[in-house]
Design brief:
Strand order of the largest sheet of chain A: 1-2
CATH architecture of the largest domain in chain A: Orthogonal Bundle
Number of helices of chain A: 13
Structural class of chain B: alpha/beta
Number of helices of chain B: 10
Largest interface: A-B, 19 and 23 residues
Oligomer: heterodimer
Order of helices and strands of chain B: HEEEHEEHEHHHEHEHEEHHEE
Shape of chain B: globular
CATH topology of the largest domain in chain A: MetI-like fold
Strand content of chain B: 25-35%
Number of domains of chain A: 2
Strand order of the largest sheet of chain B: 6-7-8-3-9-10-12-11
Number of strands of chain A: 2
Structural class of chain A: mainly alpha
């Protein structure tokens, strides 16, 4: 029963969020200087005013905003997400194609920043106040305050241009037929953008883990563990990780929003054909259907991250259980 | 454990603490470093089969004593003086080897258990076995269900038994219990003290740290009166029952007066703060017998079957 109630509540929240996001995105686009007609026919169009008016009325652009939103929402629910102006393909196809790339990129960055951030957070906490801790902390704060695109450009000029270790962009070698592109080609092209993207999250995880671990190290149960003969390593393995791993993973899940924000910049810098670069292109090209589609997708993505974080809390900490001890 | 221990061995203290001082270095007002001494030339000893209660008011540094014995003081602490365990010099390295084995710590509450680890695993610790854990659970009336529980699911009485079981996981010779009775009702406190008596009767040396003098007198063999970071008197518990004249130190007498069943008369003044201690006797500012000699070094001396740190005591 509790479980059902929770699921119902979650579904309701999700729906409310999607409605809110779509209305807000629509209003923002409505208020922006983007003119759907100009975006479609181009600024240097030679069409007569009469022809333009006909196109407008054909697409319902002369209708009031509420009616237009209702039309778009109705089609969206039925599965017609509209046609992308930039890519001359249905929005669904564009997002579907690019999601694969972005998903691989984000997973790699997410895992990398999570693992490395967690480990360096523990090291910093154990060596609190020492040189190593200060170095890790300083490094994290620098990364936290540096904009992603700047880090991306830095990596690009160092690792791709100066050292030549990695390709300067794209998701596959240039001039290679799609069917000849191997998995290692893809991974090779993904390393630098993934690394850049992980930089967004690494500082946060490290600093969070460090803080949490310092707290745990000062807990009375750590003192007791020491009194019972546990060494520092045993204390970390038996109690430290048990009490910090899941909170850290949770924070990592909750950082999906930053991850999604990060790909817009990281992919653009590396001309990586994912959702992020499509978002930038759609924004620049006034591609309203694509912008709306991506906005909805990102909302679902971020919601899923936060939901996972919430569920993990329950699994991990028996005191947080909403339905009995296990589920 | 206890019955095969010879009478002659009982005379050798399990733990001797001689002139132990503990200070913490801390920064005050900007970068001025200061050493704050919280324990001052504290001496005591505890023998096998005996409960020695260290009684003193809350916040006077009694826990620091327990942590110093176990070697789990924080990094900014500095220790002076000598400690002997089974007659042998007892340094940080030895402590690290012995704690959790021969020397067990019983903390005051369930807060000292990892909130996310099941009780069974936690009681077993790093050196115990599952068999021994089950055996101890049976002995202390904890059912098999308890080992699957998390600390927050334990009742007060269960928590106490769990902590005692943890201490007994490995053959403990010396048990240091830090305020094991606060927050429990009288019935539970009595139960706890009965458990400690049993441990001592089995041959353990028990150092019981408490703020409850009344309770200490009832269960312990000897009571060390703790004042402002030192022990001012060690007396057989009987002396506290015999009356104020059997006691030696003016502070002990004042404490006796302050007990509810006696005159319930509070001691005037307050304990000196660790940062601003008087030279010599720490009690002099509140003492009626104060004389010019009280400002000098006052050693612990034997007197009438106990020990006292006062030049006027007779």
């Amino acid at each position: 029963m509790e479980r059902l109630k929770y699921l119902g509540k979650t579904a309701f929240r999700m729906t409310a969020l999607l409605i809110a996001v779509s209305i807000l995105s629509f209003l923002l686009l409505e208020a922006s200087p983007i003119d759907p007609l100009t975006a479609c026919i181009g600024t240097d169009s030679t069409l007569s005013d009469r022809a333009k008016a006909e196109i407008s009325s054909h697409w319902g652009l002369d209708q009031p905003p509420v009616k237009r939103f209702a039309a778009w929402a109705g089609n969206f629910i039925r599965g017609d997400w509209g046609e992308s102006i930039t890519y001359k393909k249905p929005v669904k196809t564009v997002i579907g194609e690019r999601l694969k790339y972005s998903f691989a990129l984000m997973s790699a960055a997410w895992l990398f920043s999570g693992v490395l951030g967690y480990l360096s957070g523990i090291i910093a906490a154990v060596k609190k106040g020492r040189l190593l801790d200060r170095m890790i902390k300083g490094f994290c704060l620098t990364l936290q305050s540096a904009p992603t695109f700047w880090i991306g450009l830095l990596f690009l000029s160092l690792f791709a241009v100066r050292l030549g270790w990695f390709p300067i962009g794209l998701a596959a070698p240039m001039g290679k037929a799609a069917e000849d592109v191997t998995l290692s080609d893809r991974i090779y092209h993904m390393i630098l953008p993934a690394f850049t993207l992980s930089v967004v999250g690494i500082g946060k995880v490290t600093l969070y883990t460090r803080q949490k671990f310092i707290e745990i190290l000062n807990e009375e149960f750590m003192l007791y563990a020491r009194a019972r003969g546990e060494s520092t390593v045993q204390m970390i393995l038996r109690h430290g990780i048990r009490n910090t791993l899941m909170p850290a993973v949770t924070v990592q899940f909750a950082s999906f929003s930053e991850l999604f924000g990060g790909i817009a910049l990281a992919e653009t810098v590396f001309s990586y054909p994912g959702i992020g670069s499509a978002l930038t292109a759609a924004g620049l090209g006034g591609d309203v259907p694509l912008l709306l589609g991506i906005a909805i997708c990102s909302a679902v993505f971020v919601f899923a991250g936060n939901l996972t974080a919430n569920l993990l809390y329950i699994v991990v900490d028996p005191r947080q259980a909403v339905w009995g001890r296990h589920f | 454990m206890g019955h095969n221990r010879g009478e002659d061995k009982k005379k050798e203290p399990v733990l001797t603490v001689e002139e132990l001082s503990v200070s913490f270095s801390m920064y005050r007002r900007g970068l001025k470093k200061e050493n704050l001494e919280v324990l001052h030339k504290l001496s005591l000893s505890v023998q096998a089969g005996e409960i020695l209660a260290v009684a003193g008011s809350s916040g006077s540094g009694k826990s620091i004593l327990a942590h110093a014995i176990l070697g789990i003081l924080p990094g900014n602490a500095c220790m002076e003086g000598r400690m002997l365990y089974q007659g042998k010099f007892f340094d940080a390295k030895e402590k690290a080897k012995l704690r959790g084995k021969e020397i067990a710590f019983i903390p005051q509450s369930v807060d000292y258990l990892d909130p996310l680890m099941r009780i069974g695993k936690q009681v077993t610790g790093i050196r115990g076995t599952r068999e021994r854990q089950r055996e101890l659970f049976r002995k202390y009336g904890l059912d098999e269900d308890a080992e699957k529980k998390y600390p927050y699911e334990l009742s007060g009485g269960m928590a106490r038994r769990v902590l005692i079981a943890s201490a007994l996981m490995n053959e403990a010779q010396l048990i240091v219990a830090d305020e094991p009775t606060p927050g429990l009702d009288l019935g539970m406190a009595r139960e706890a003290l009965k458990d400690f008596r049993e441990l001592a009767d089995q041959g353990c040396a028990v150092l019981l740290i408490t703020h409850d003098l009344d309770l200490a007198v009832r269960v312990a063999d000897r009571v060390a009166v703790f004042y402002a970071g030192t022990v001012v008197e060690t007396a057989p518990s009987g002396d506290f029952l015999a009356g104020r004249d059997a006691l030696r130190h003016p502070y002990s007498k004042a404490l006796w007066d302050a007990l509810p069943q006696h005159e319930f008369k509070p001691v005037s003044g307050t304990q000196p703060y660790a940062g601003s201690l008087p030279e010599g006797c720490l009690f002099q500012d509140r003492c009626a017998q104060r004389s010019g000699l009280c400002g000098g070094y006052i050693p612990m001396r034997s007197l009438r079957g106990g020990e006292v740190r006062c030049i006027h005591a007779k």
